[in-house]
Structure formats: C-alpha cells, structure tokens
Design a protein that fits this description.
Length: about 100
C-alpha cells in the first residue's frame, strides 16, 4: 500500500487491489483498466514462485505489461528471476520505478 501512495503522490493513476486479490481475476482487471504496470509486494517466500509463474503466463497474452516486485520474499538473490519486463525494487530505489 505504501508504494501505491508513493506513486499517487507522483501523479500515477493507481488501482490498488489489496493483498487478497485472486490471481485468476487479474487478467480481467488488466484488460478493463488497460493496466501497463503491476506492482506486488510479497512477504512470504512460499508465494513468490506462484507469482512468478503467473507473471510468465500473463506475459504471454500481455507482452507489454511490466512488473515491479518487492518485499521480503524477494530479498534473497536466488528468488530473483531475470526478465526484461520485471524489476525488483527495494525501498531505496522507489524513485527509479519507471526504468524497467
């Protein structure tokens, strides 16, 4: 939620969905609202792999969609998958959020 407030203060159009939005519902939301960025914070490492798998799947049908990931689940280097449309963004780099 903090990152969404940060983006709003900088003039970004933000659609905050909250922590319990099912991944299965996101494609409909992406299409309806013409989403270009998705930011997600994952604390529990158990959910990181599921999110990365979903990013792989949705990127096939939405190749221009870009992702910003953060949270404790991605603090370990081995959890960071390198993809051209994905960026891990620690708090101290938030000002650089558009450079994906």
């Amino acid at each position: 939620m903090s990152f969404s407030l940060f983006l709003r203060k900088r003039g970004a159009d933000v659609l905050y969905l909250g922590p319990d939005t099912p991944l299965a519902d996101l494609e409909r939301i992406i299409d309806r609202h013409k989403v270009s960025f998705i930011a997600a914070s994952v604390t529990d490492v158990r959910y990181a792999d599921r999110l990365i798998a979903w990013i792989d799947a949705i990127s096939r049908s939405h190749p221009k969609l870009r992702f910003i990931l953060g949270g404790a689940a991605f603090d370990k280097i081995e959890k960071r998958i390198v993809k051209p449309n994905l960026r891990y963004l620690p708090y101290d780099e938030w000002d650089d959020w558009q450079n994906i």
